[in-house]
Amino acid sequence: MQSSAKIKVTHILTDSNIGGAGRLLRYQLEKADRERFEYSVILPEDAALIPEIEALGIPVITVYGIADRSTAPDMKGILTEKIKSLAPDILHTHSSRTGRFAGVAAGVPKIILSKHCSDMPPAQLMKFPYKQMLVREWKKTLHGAIATDDSAADSIAAEALSRDKITVIYNGAPALPVLSDGEKSSLKAEFGIPEKSFVVGIFARIEPVKDHDKFLDIATECIERGLDDVYFLIVGDGSKRDYVEDYIKDSEYEGRIKTTGFVPDIAPLMNICDVNVNCSVGTETSNLALIEGMSLGVVPVVSDLPGNERIAEGCGIVCDRNDYEEFADAIESLYRDREKLSALSIAAKEKYLAKYTSERFAREVEEYYLQLMK
Predict the structure, then answer these.
(1) Domain map of the chain by residue range?
(2) Is 22 within 8 Å of 30 (Cβ atoms)?
(3) Looking at the DSSP assignment, which residues form a beta bridge with residue 37?
(4) Does 7-173+358-372 carry CATH code 3.40.50.2000?
(5) Of residues 222 and 130, which shows the higher confidence score?
(6) 181-355 adopts what CATH topology?
(7) pTM
(8) How far is 332 from 29, CA to CA, in rounded Å?
(9) CA–CA gap between residue 219 and residue 325 (Å, rounded)
């Protein structure tokens, strides 16, 4: 490849809905260096991300039969032909095992993956002969990997890839737009939240790993302590949404705990929050909702997972993931001590600008691409 030629990068993402990986991909492509790189994206048919990528002027190639399937051997031939037609220098996969095999079949020079969570491989895969098979597979289909923090890198290394082939790049996100005081008041009114209230939000898929049960316990504890001006906002959708909403309806605090369901743009709701809770019990690395909240100065109160601790250090409060009362203590301390809240809010904005912008993330990913092609 001539030095003056653009490096062609094709991403494969199999998510039908827009999750953290899809948002992160969009953020990277929004800040991409189009002078040095030529991008394309392979997505499932009807993927929610399609219009957002197309709006950036980046070609989208759709493939049926791959939606929400990392392993889709029946689609390998079709993926191979699609990849051949794009002729990328780098194939960047996101939860697409079959995509990696298709990249090999298509003769792509460099194939990588991104790891967005810290879940460790099943114990069975670490035993003979499965471990040996996995090592052979990864040697055949991968030239490197990007992990969103050290715990994600450890997860990849535990599976099969040599640690020296894994690069840690922390997530980044664009700063959320700031609403005026009038817009915030109107939005609060829509949800029946008083104008001068203190709002605690959780922005996450309503799935067991995010532990919304604990968030409900935290909310109940705070209300029962007499924090009368505190309201709780649950933003997101997922398999436990009906359970959460039924719990709230059956409680005596329905007016104090609000749910929104899925929202395509979290910025307005983040604007009305004072505290952003992540009480996840596993897999968090560089949580985008925490980072986006920090761009507005929303203070993170998080469970003691390594990725959460790194993000909240110096600008938030870290709590024992198993102790809802400790979370309630943290929220009460911020509610009662507004100087502490203000100081942490300022620190959150500063840390966002120093470490977690989408510009920084995109540049580091593209620097990795350049190193890969040497």
Answers:
(1) 7-173+358-372, 181-355
(2) no
(3) 7
(4) yes
(5) 222
(6) Rossmann fold (3.40.50)
(7) 0.92
(8) 40
(9) 10
